[in-house]
Amino acid sequence: MNEIEQYVEGITMDLPDEEMEELREEMVGHLQEHVQELLTQGYREKEAVRLAIDSFGDEGKLNREFKRSYFPTYKVVRFAWSVVWTVSGLGLFSYFAMEYYRPEFDNGIDLDSLWLALFYIASLAGAGEVLHAGLQRDVKWKWVLNPWVFFMVPSLMISGLQTSMLFTQPERYQDGLWLDLYAVAIGALMYVSARQLFNPLFLGGNISKRNVVK
C-alpha cells in the first residue's frame, strides 16, 4: 500500500463499505492528479506526494468529520452496544464458570449486580474511549491507537500483575475464584470484540443500515 492509499485508508476507516469505496476512489484520484501537477512543476515524487497529502488535511480530523456527517450518533451507539455486550458476556461467563465449579449453589445473577456491573464497565470503557479520542489528535504512531492495542495491552498488564496473588494468597482463589484475577482482561476482550463487530453487523455497506445509528 503506497503513502496515498494509506492516507486515504485512515480518512475512510470505519465508514460504511459503500461510502468508503466511493470516497477512496474519489480522493485517491484527486490526490494523484495533484501529485502529477506538482511533478510537472519540478518537485520530486516523494515531496509531491507529501505536499498533496498536506494540502488535504489531517486524516484523523477528516475521518471524524465524515463519521459525524454519515452517522452523528455513531460513537454513542457503538459504545452502548459494546458495554451491553460486555456485561452480558461477563455475566454468562461467570454463570457457567460457577456452575462448573459450584453446581450445588444457586449461581443466578441478581439484577442489582447487573446494574453495578453495567455502571462499572461503562465508567471504565467511557474513560478509555475519551482518552482514545483525545490521543487521535496527538499520537504520531497510529498503531498505538489500534483498539486491540489500546484497550487490551493495559488490561493484560493489570491481569498479569494480579497473577502473583495466585501464589501469595492461594487460599482466596479456590474453586474458580481465580478467574476474578482475569476479569479485566476478559472484559476488555469482550468490549473490543463487540466494538470491532459493530460495523460489519450493523453497517455492513448497506446504506439503509445507517439509520440504526441516526
Topology readout:
Blueprint (H helix, E strand, L loop, with lengths): L2 H10 L4 H24 L4 H12 L2 H12 L3 H28 L9 H25 L11 H16 L2 H4 L14 H21 L11
Helix pairs in contact: 1-2, 1-4, 2-3, 5-6, 5-9, 7-9
Keywords:
214 residues; mainly alpha; 2 domains; 9 helices; disordered C terminus
Major sheet attributes? none
Helical percentage: over 70%
How much β-strand is present in the residues?
Answer: under 5%
Counting DSSP H or I runs of 4 or more residues, the number of helices is: 9
Q: Give me the count of strands.
A: 0
Give average pLDDT, whole number.
Answer: 85
Give the overall silhouette. Answer: elongated
**Helix and strand run:** HHHHHHHHH
Structural class: mainly alpha
Structure characterization notes:
With 214 residues, the chain is mainly alpha-helical. The protein folds into two domains: 3-70, no CATH class; 74-213, no CATH class. It is 71% helix and 0% strand. The chain has nine helices and no strands. Helix 1 runs antiparallel to helix 2 (17-40), helix 5 (74-101) packs across helix 6 and helix 5 (74-101) packs across helix 9 (183-203). The longest helix is centred in the middle third of the chain and has 28 residues, at 74-101. The protein is elongated. The two termini are 33 Å apart.
Quick description:
71% of the residues lie in helices and 0% in strands. It has helices spanning 3-12, 17-40, 45-56, 59-70, 74-101, 111-135, 147-162, 165-168, 183-203.
